[in-house]
Amino acid sequence: MRCGIIGYPLGHSVSPAMHVAAFTAFGIDGSYELWETPADALAARVEALRDPAVGGANVTIPHKQAVLPLLDVLDPLAGAIGAVNTIVNRDGRLTGYNTDAPGFLRSLAEEGGFEPRGARVLVLGAGGAARGIVHALATAGAECITIANRTLAKGDSLAVAVETATGVPVDACCEPGDLGDYACIVNTTSLGMLGAQQAQLPCALDSAATGTLVADIVYNPSQTAWMAEAERRGLPVVGGLGMLVHQGALAFELWTGQAPPPGVMFAAAAEALGQGKP
Ligand code: ATR
Description:
This protein has helices at 15-26, 42-47, 76-81, 100-112, 128-139, 152-166, 225-232, 241-256, 264-274; strands at residues 2-7, 31-36, 54-59, 73-74, 86-90, 93-97, 120-124, 144-148, 170-173, 184-187, 213-216, 237-238. By secondary structure, the chain is of the alpha/beta class.
């Protein structure tokens, strides 16, 4: 079975290492390729997925939204979020899924012991990643969600979209203010990523209540400056590697019908990151 990832650029991807490890664990004759695809080649790249030898693909930046009209069927969650990160080829028909959102929830549950039902949650950022995360938290029963984003208009429009779709109260602001009310704070901004923004914190944690879960979806470095600050304050912390691995595991299951053994994809992703691939 041939699978791969569609995006541009792809130099940083650890997905091949994760999926090859899962294929190997099951003894499946599978490959996972880097399909680096500029925008003007996207339609042809997606069309090529109908080949019977192809199981499907992951989709990443910048194509998660552009790919929607090129597919035959859209899973309802992917449709509601408006973004696809996984495509499955079934007899030449292409179905789009979003495994980022359930992957994030699984990471909160498994690595953080956190269930959103009834919780007040703060989400920092309002970009592509925030879209799936705010939607996932709302559909998982969060009591209310606040989005804090530098550009208020983007936060506002995401808040209205999710509140309309789910009925969960979502509001937006530029600065989060007092954090004492939140059971969980999630960073979806690029602050803390390896590179120029690595030392920047997405928000101060002075006012966070004891036990507030601090979740960062940045996975490189594996411990961001913000996560280190949370740990210094004794707050529970979840890093971004879990979401990366769980979205990959859910995609693998959609392609093969088999759930990868726990730990196999984690170890492969951590090793690939340690080797400085991203
Ligand atoms: P992704 O798909 O990873 O979410 P994105 O759509 O480019 O990437 O979104 C990046 C997020 O990080 C946005 O919320 C962005 O804020 P703006 O909407 O105001 O652009 C946020 N972000 C990036 N750099 C930032 C900075 N220096 N300070 C605050 N927020 C920042």
